[in-house]
């Protein structure tokens, strides 16, 4: 059956606020460098007031990945919850402006649209403080059957493994996708998410997921080991494809007994690592949807990650389709 979409994603609909800071600011605010912490509306207001002037842009991990898929020329759809407020309208506009389909009904009353306050230090590390707001109101009822069944790959954002209702949405999406002969991909998102839900997350990965994205710290947390190679082998036993990033060392793509080491694309200057993993997943998923080899998928992922870390913001600023062509991909 012909797919309506290359990738459909379920994730947190968030508007990012990105500002520069130094390590002293992180210490003063009690922030753990390089981490993602959940905050309430009061903390969000106080931290926002303390931050330097920054830029605002629609974000959310899976939504950023879809922006990359669309930039490659792929067909994308997003499922996520915003409120019926100004930031919600901004997010909706931005998703549709990149060519993505976004039809999830907004929350009429209750918490506001989510925001992620991102402080970037001179070494390009990003420290994220996230007010989830309307995101946690996503339920299985928001999972559009036609969208999931019509997508080659349904991509699930690991951050949403926290709310129980969203976990039910994942289960529904997996059932619909596999019932239609499609594939389920998931990103582990954060080692803290893995630590909170290791047993349940591993069970979901083993039984419902075909493709798993992770970074080195996340996969080591999943299998409670410091041995990266051993962790990759363990994941490869459980899923069809494992794609694991490791910053400047590139990535490892594993499928069965086959392992591919993918080099990182050179970057003149790393400005902001926000969105690197999201864009790697974008390139990889786009490659899979086009029937490319796993090695090529990894290279497309590395290319997209290299583009996004060379500037502020989590989404590509050039057409990734053109960039891929320029690099023989």
Descriptive account of the structure:
The chain has twelve helices and 14 strands. It is α/β, with parallel strands linked by helices and 329 residues long. The strands form two sheets. A nine-stranded mixed β-sheet has the order 6-5-1-9-10-11-12-13-14, with helices on both faces. It starts with a strand and ends with a helix. The protein is globular and about 50 Å long. The mean pLDDT is 94. Strand 5 (76-79), helix 4 (86-97) and strand 6 (101-102) form a beta-alpha-beta unit. Helix 7 (191-208) packs across helix 8. The chain has a single domain (5-14, 59-112, 133-327), classed as Ribokinase (UDP-N-acetylmuramoyl-L-alanine:D-glutamate ligase). Keywords: Kinase, Transferase. This is Adenosine kinase. GO terms for molecular function: kinase activity. InterPro entries: Carb_kinase_PfkB-like (IPR052700), Carboh/pur_kinase_PfkB_CS (IPR002173), PfkB_dom (IPR011611), Ribokinase-like (IPR029056). It holds the Pfam family PfkB.
Using brief descriptors, characterize the structure shown.
9-stranded mixed β-sheet; kinase; alpha/beta; 12 helices; UDP-N-acetylmuramoyl-L-alanine:D-glutamate ligase; kinase activity; 5-stranded mixed β-sheet; Carboh/pur_kinase_PfkB_CS; transferase; PfkB_dom; globular
């Amino acid at each position: 059956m012909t797919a309506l979409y290359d990738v459909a994603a379920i994730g947190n609909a968030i508007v990012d606020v990105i500002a520069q800071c130094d390590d002293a600011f992180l210490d003063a605010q009690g922030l753990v460098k390089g981490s993602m912490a959940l905050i309430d509306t009061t903390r969000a207001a106080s931290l926002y007031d303390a931050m330097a002037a920054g830029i605002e842009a629609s974000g959310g991990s899976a939504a950023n990945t879809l922006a990359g898929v669309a930039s490659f020329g792929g067909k994308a759809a997003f499922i996520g919850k915003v409120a019926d407020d100004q930031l919600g309208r901004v997010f909706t506009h931005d998703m549709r402006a990149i060519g993505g389909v976004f039809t999830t009904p907004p929350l009429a009353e209750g918490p506001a649209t989510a925001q992620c306050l991102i402080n970037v230090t001179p070494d390009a590390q990003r420290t994220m403080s996230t007010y989830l707001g309307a995101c946690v109101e996503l339920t299985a009822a928001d999972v559009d059957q036609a969208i999931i069944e019509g997508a080659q790959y349904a991509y699930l954002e690991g951050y949403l493994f926290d709310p129980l209702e969203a976990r039910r949405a994942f289960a529904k999406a997996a059932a619909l996708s596999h019932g239609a002969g499609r594939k389920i991909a998931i990103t582990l998102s954060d080692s803290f998410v893995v630590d909170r839900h290791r047993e349940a997350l591993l069970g979901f990965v083993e039984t419902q997921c075909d493709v798993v994205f992770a970074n080195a710290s996340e996969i080591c947390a999943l299998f409670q080991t410091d041995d990266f190679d051993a962790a990759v082998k363990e994941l490869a036993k459980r899923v069809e494809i494992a794609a694991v990033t490791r910053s400047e060392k590139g990535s490892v793509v594993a499928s069965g007994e086959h392992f591919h080491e993918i080099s990182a694309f050179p970057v003149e200057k790393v400005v902001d690592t926000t969105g690197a993993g999201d864009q790697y997943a974008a390139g990889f998923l786009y490659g899979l949807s086009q029937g490319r080899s796993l090695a090529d998928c990894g290279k497309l992922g590395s290319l997209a990650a290299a583009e996004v870390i060379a500037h502020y913001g989590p989404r590509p600023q050039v057409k990734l389709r053109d960039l891929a062509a320029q690099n023989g991909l």
